[in-house]
Amino acid sequence: FSSSSLLFFSQSSLSSLLFFSPSLVSHLISLFMTCILLRAPRPLCVMCYAEHIADKCAVCNKGINPLPGHGGKISLNGSNWHAECFNCSVCQETLNGKPCIPKPEGLFCKPCYAKYKAQKKKH
After folding, report:
1. Across the strands, what pairs with 44?
2. What are the Cα distances from residue 100, in Å, to 11, 94, 97, 108, 110?
């Protein structure tokens, strides 16, 4: 076994013993570190994690990738957004790092909410 590396994957009480060449093991570990998320009872690729488990964006309804360097997640009042989707519902300006007014009708920047509120009073 000197030319092979051993990897053990545990699933419940069963363990599988797999034999790989050292270069393949190195590649698999690199792939694992960047693309696989451990989630009981089995590992998932990032795409499956985003589709089935990750928090969904309130605007686009797509999963929010939890890995560093993917824009991050903004959470407010129990809702979640991709950073690029966290925009004013009226003018579409980003609200990331800015004051915002969350309403059932959408997210508003201060100027757009003032206009919305004034228009609502007229009706």
Report:
1. 37
2. 46, 10, 9, 6, 6
In tens digits, what is the pLDDT along the chain, a chain of 123 residues? Answer: 333 333 444 433 333 335 556 666 666 655 555 455 665 567 777 778 778 888 999 999 999 887 777 778 899 889 999 999 999 999 999 998 899 999 988 899 999 999 988 888 876
The b-or-e profile of 47-76 (16+ CB within 10 A means b, else e) is: ebbbeeebebbbbeeebbbeeeeebbbbee
**Beta strands 73-76 and 79-82: pairing type?**
antiparallel
Supply the Cα-derived Rg of the chain in whole angstroms: 23
Task: Give the pair of three-digit tokens for residue 121.
Answer: 């009073």
CA distance 21 to 28: 11
**Cα–Cα distance between 62 and 15 in angstroms, integer?**
35
Q: Are 48 and 58 in contact (CB under 8 A)?
A: no
